[in-house]
Design brief:
The chain has nine helices and ten strands. With 265 residues, it is an alpha/beta fold. Helix 6 crosses helix 7 and helix 8 crosses helix 9. It is globular and about 55 Å long.
Length: 265
């Protein structure tokens, strides 16, 4: 699947950062591969698509270790790693595996410190980090990531007070869900950018999207039209699930019909 997507021209290949299967997809005991082990494997079998989680749960890994993981992925993939990250939500898997799962306010505090630590380590600054939740005596990162100035950061979620503020402050991209209030979310992000003195247009806007072209491509034009609507709103990337992706044919149809049709949107 990854090779087919890479050959078809997809810009991203992403995996979920979960340890149990998530509700809405299947029972918790259905198969779920660990995300970064999987991305490291996919790095060896692809050559052009960016690789990321959609998205890393900030509380699942110590921030210094996460910076090392993403740096390693970037080196091994030839500079194709992104850090997709969010505050995490799946309490069931966290408690099941013994991962501390603090209240939501603290998870956002830990998310912000994680972003600060990753950026410091990617800058080469080895000064001690002293935060509310994390203390690092020597945040050494060797080898450094290949991507300069650092692997792009995508923050997932549309929370208007916290998440989009963190996007404006730290990220190169956001990922929103296709809810009816999408336009307002972009307006809120623009306001946060103004407050942070950040150029709004510097931030890539992506929207979660179900690519369903049908078994033989009969719905390809419909997908193109829906992507055009997102582009008109200001989104430059659609990232999400491909229906029946395991059959490979939908990936090939998207590569031959959809991607060329929306390339200039």
């Amino acid at each position: 699947m990854a090779r087919a997507a890479d050959d078809a021209g997809f810009g991203f290949i992403s995996v979920m950062d979960h340890f149990f299967q998530i509700r809405g997809v299947g029972p918790a005991d259905h198969e779920m591969l660990e995300a970064y082990t999987t991305l490291g494997y996919l790095a060896a079998h692809t050559s052009r698509a960016n690789l990321l989680t959609l998205v890393t749960g900030a509380v699942y890994r110590y921030p210094g270790v996460l910076a090392k993981i993403v740096s390693t992925l970037d080196v091994l993939s030839g500079g194709r790693a992104w850090l997709g990250i969010g505050a995490a939500w799946n309490e069931e898997e966290s408690k099941g595996l013994g991962i501390p799962f603090p209240p939501v306010a603290e998870r956002f505090e830990r998310l912000e410190e994680t972003l600060q630590i990753c950026l410091q380590m990617w800058s080469g600054d080895e000064a001690p980090f002293r935060g509310t939740h994390y203390e690092l005596d020597r945040p050494l990162n060797s080898p450094q990531a290949l991507t300069e100035p650092h692997p792009p950061i995508m923050i997932g979620g549309g929370g208007e007070r916290k998440t989009l503020r963190l996007v404006a402050r730290y990220a190169q991209a956001c990922n929103l869900f296709p809810t009816p209030d999408l336009a307002r979310k972009l307006d809120v992000l623009r306001a946060h950018c103004d407050a942070e003195e950040r150029v709004y247009d510097e931030i890539s806007k992506s929207c979660y999207f179900i690519f369903d072209v049908g078994p033989n491509g009969q719905k390809a034009n419909e997908v193109v039209d829906r992507l055009g609507e997102l582009a008109a709103m200001g989104f430059d990337t659609a990232i999400g699930a491909v229906a029946n992706v395991w059959e490979i044919t939908p990936l090939e149809i998207i590569g031959s019909q959809v991607i060329p049709a929306v390339a200039d949107l």
